[in-house]
Amino acid sequence: MYCIKCGVKLADTEKTCPLCGTRVFHPDLTQGEGDALYPSNTYPRTKRATFLPQILLTFASVLPIIIVFLCDWQINRTVTWSGYVMGALVLGYVLIVMPSWFKKPNPVIFVPIDFLVLSAYLLYINYETGGKWFMSFAFPLVVGLGVLITALVTLLRYIKRGKLYIYGGFLISLGAFMLLIEFFVNYTFGLGRFIGWSLYPLATLVMIGGLLIFLAIYRPAKEIMERKFFI
Asked: How far is 201 from 31, CA to CA, in rounded Å?
């Protein structure tokens, strides 16, 4: 049984909602008819979809790109510092503005695109600075996180049940990935020894993920948590 106002799950013996104080609805009580939302034979007008905000944001992104490129070219006759600025603007546009062009953007598509663009930007920085950290650190880090987050949003989008299992498995996998991050850091930057800082987030994420899976398996504990924290 759930509260008709705020949606909190209620025990069968409760008379009022402990969160908002609304009287518990009983199906045997006669309910009066409320006022109509709209006059008879009159319907609300549907708003036309407009892309004006997206157009303005696109213009606000393209204009700085043109300005910094022209300034850099005027001074240096080549692309130097402007490449970093233009790359950051393109990355921000892809992350924030591009999904808004679609009525219902699919995160399963846009999340991999975001990580792909991020990888390209980091590759450009690595090339311009003469670094040797992209393939041994940035690339596996971005790909690993991209795979984990893409798997998470895919499961949440296409599987309607078992969300606690999904979140729990994601947190445990993320904790295990912390060990790989420390390995990539040590290998790339020549630290030479295993410090073990990754064990702390690993233990924390495994405990939280394990708790979520336990709540998914043991239903009475899940119901107690729902009533205790109104979740």
From this structure: 53
pTM equals 0.72
CA angle 166, 2, 23 (to 5 degrees): 155
Q: How many CA atoms lie within 13 A of 116 on its CB side?
A: 7
Q: Which residue has the tokens 């009159």?
A: 42
Interatomic CA distance for residues 67 and 73, integer angstroms: 10
Question: Cα separations (Å) of 32 from 38, 82, 90, 125, 131?
Answer: 18, 67, 56, 67, 73
176: closest CA among 153, 150, 210?
A: 210
Measure the CA–CA gap between 51 and 98, rounded to whole angstroms. Answer: 12
Q: What is the DSSP string of 179-217?
A: HHHHHHHHHHHT--S---TTHHHHHHHHHHHHHHHHHHH
Nearest to 88 by CA among 59, 66, 55, 121: 121
pLDDT digits (tens, 9 = 90+) for 107-139: 999 999 999 999 999 999 999 999 889 999 999
Q: Tell me, letter by letter, the H, E, C secondary structure of 152-176.
A: HHHHHHHCCCCHHHHHHHHHHHHHH
Neighbouring CB atoms inside 10 A of 158's CB total 8
Question: Is 198 within 8 Å of 178 (Cβ atoms)?
Answer: yes
84 close to 98: Cβ distance less than 8 angstroms: no
Partners of residue 2 on adjacent β-strands: 9
